[in-house]
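Reproducibility note. Readers wishing to regenerate the assembly model reported in the main text can use the exact inputs given here. Chain order matters: entities are listed in the order in which they were concatenated for prediction.
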Amino acid sequence: MLNVKILGSGCANCKRLEKNVRALAEKHNLQLEIEKVTDYAEIMKWPILSTPGLVVNNRLVSAGKIPSDQQLLEWLNPA
Amino acid sequence: MDQTLSTQHKPEIPWRMIGLLVLAAIAWLAAYNIIQPLANWIAYGLLAQPQGSHLGDALAFFFYDVPKIILLLGGMIFLISLLRTFFSAEQTRAWLGGKREGVGNVLAAMLGIVTPFCSCSAVPLFIGFVESGIPLGVTFSFLIAAPTINEVAVVLLFGLFGWKVAGIYIASGLIISIIAGVVIGRLKMERYVEDFVWQMQSQGEGLTEKLTFQERIERSWDSVKEIVGKVWLYVVVGIAVGAGIHGYVPDAALAGIMGRQEWWSVPAAVLVGIPLYSNAAGVIPIVSALMEKGASLGTVLAFMMSVVGLSLPETIILRRVLKPQLIAVFIGVIAVAIIITGYLFNWIM
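Running the prediction on these inputs yields the following structure tokens for the assembly.
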């Protein structure tokens, strides 16, 4: 099971990213463990300067934007 | 980031994209040129209001300004966003690293205009800058310039007042950010940054991404949709109120209150502006109508700067990393800088 962390303090884009990830997981039947990280001290352990950040299995894959669904699928469904 | 994968094979020339862009530009120009006759036709023809009547003039003003501003917003935000795809917060941080105060403040304020920035990212950006050793004052120059010299405000000023006022707005935003950053740096406020910030140590390399031409275009188009989608209603309401003022308020009615004679008009405008936020899109059309009726440029600019630059939401977000004393200094220094700029313009214009 992939561990997915969404880094963001609750801004509009962070919520949209979370919604997109959940929708994709449902649509493609992906087994994901989705975590929301909202504490800045935790968020800033990752080298990001803008939110939302996306971490998949402890690897930072995106920061400061909402990746396209196609892009998200590549990270979330590596099979 | 795996966008790098897509750029590894030889980039093809995106003819389809270029063709689309050319078509879009032609459509934009055509639309921009028919809105004036169209507005007159709707107001004086379709709605049968006599030319020169209060209602007729207000309607013509409304039906011309709304499509004009929406078109300008769409076109210019596209271009600004395209420019911004060549900049990133990571790149800006790298450029600012190792710069001394002074030079650093000037560079930070200028990069604040072109670096993509959203006030919700103010905290990670602040921590990331400070952590990498960029002086506090330089960081503040960036954090003040980025929201103050706001693309929506610049486009509206350009559309409603012309390029001179838009240019003056950008120049005063730069000056305010530089001065405020230098002052905050000189005050040695480091101990008023929340302690956890100094203990942060992020792990690993930041992301760098290479974008293809197509991705830049797509991203710019996305931000046009996002920004225009967010502000169009404010623009419509703002222009409706502005049109009312344009048609009904007698000329020079406001010269007394918002004109340059009253010494208190500039500070009053700044005070009123601080709690207002995100209505920049709605405020500027109103303000443009007020100016027509005798309000002076410095007062109006001061008002807009404090609406756009001194925003309550951003201040609340920054409270997470700054102690109250530094928040107070932050607001105070910017407010004073805006007031000085307001007086300056009232005096020279």
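We highlight two features of this model. Chain B touches chain A at residues 1-2, 88-90, 93, 116-118, 120-121, 123-125, 127-129, 131, 196, 200, 202-207, 219, 317, 320-321 (CB under 8 Å). Confidence is low (pLDDT under 50) at residues 1-8 of chain B.
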